[in-house]
Design brief:
The chain is of the alpha+beta class. It is built from 9 helices and 10 strands. The two termini are 46 Å apart.
């Protein structure tokens, strides 16, 4: 996944969300635009077609970001790169909030579909096809791009939107860890089909995208396994996550970023016992949010008072 801090250019900020463009986008854009030269009478339309693709991608990612913020989550960065876009969203650790944050992206494509369909249908009656054949061909391609992105994104393959929507729905029934496990297993089966399709069609880009999906799906599977193991671990009294209200697990579940050694951050007060590195924020292994150690103890004390 691309980094917003390495090799990316900040384009603009809208509604509190910074939009970045990864440097590799320019290389792939040059290749794709030149590869499709001849589709229109002028390469300018090839450029406009490629820009339209990423405009739709950007709107899709804004759907994720704004929906996440609507339910109280954090979302302030979007990165556009050759394989599409990434909205860095952090919804509250609830299935409903996660479901809305993910589903809002494809819903943008759903909203665009009738608008583009009407424009395509009106092209011939209004004379655009004869008067502006390049525009007519471009409009039809934009319609196909939006539909293709919608269909591809809702495939139930984790971490595509469809796979994450499936995970959110299963979360209501199975809990966070088991739903992630189920979604990633289904995703691995689905990505195997994508890889086979890429080989049969000899489609390089589909193969690259499939490899990227496979890596992220495998990472999600490992995360699900770790979560299920932690769910069986004993919990520590006196420390609870301020976000998800879950008590901290006992054991060496945190890894030092400096020396890469595991340790129990609550036993050492957020200090690595191996190299002495101190951490101002402690990450919850259940919801992923990070808070100062004092907030964990304050929340635990408040929870005990409210329950007594």
């Amino acid at each position: 996944m691309p980094s917003t801090r390495q090799g990316s250019i900040r384009l603009f900020r809208f509604a509190g969300v910074d939009v970045f463009l990864h440097w590799s986008w320019f290389l792939v854009a040059t290749y794709e635009i030149s590869n499709r030269a001849g589709t229109y009478s002028s390469i300018t339309w090839n450029i406009l077609e490629y820009l339209a693709l990423f405009l739709i991608v950007m709107l899709h990612e804004f759907g994720h970001a704004l929906a996440c913020r609507q339910v109280g989550g954090r979302a302030n960065q979007i990165v556009l790169w050759p394989l599409g876009g990434v909205a860095y969203v952090d919804p509250p650790p609830r299935p409903g909030a996660t479901l809305w944050s993910i589903a809002a992206g494809p819903l943008v494509n759903v909203a665009l579909f009738p608008i583009l369909s009407i424009l395509v249908k009106l092209s011939r009656p209004l004379g655009w096809a004869d008067a502006m054949p390049n525009f007519d061909a471009w409009l039809y391609m934009v319609w196909k791009i939006n539909l293709g992105l919608l269909i591809f994104n809702i495939l139930p393959i984790y971490p595509l939107d469809g796979g994450q929507i499936l995970r959110s729905l299963l979360w209501f029934l199975m809990g966070a860890a088991r739903s992630l496990m189920a979604a990633t297993v289904i995703g691995l089966i689905g990505v195997a089909g994508l890889i086979l399709l890429a080989v049969v069609r000899q489609d390089l880009w589909l193969g690259v995208i499939s490899a990227f999906i496979l890596m992220n799906c495998w990472s999600g599977l490992q995360q699900a396994r770790a979560s299920m193991q932690r769910s069986k671990a004993p919990r520590r009294d006196g420390f609870a996550c301020p976000s998800c209200k879950t008590a901290a697990p006992i054991g060496d579940h945190w890894t030092c970023n400096q020396c890469r050694q595991p340790f129990d951050t609550f036993q050492t007060q957020a200090t690595c016992p191996h190299c002495g590195a101190r951490y101002p924020l402690t990450q919850c292994l259940d919801c992923g949010r990070a808070h100062p150690m004092t907030d964990w103890t304050t929340h635990a004390f408040t929870s005990r008072n409210l329950s007594s």
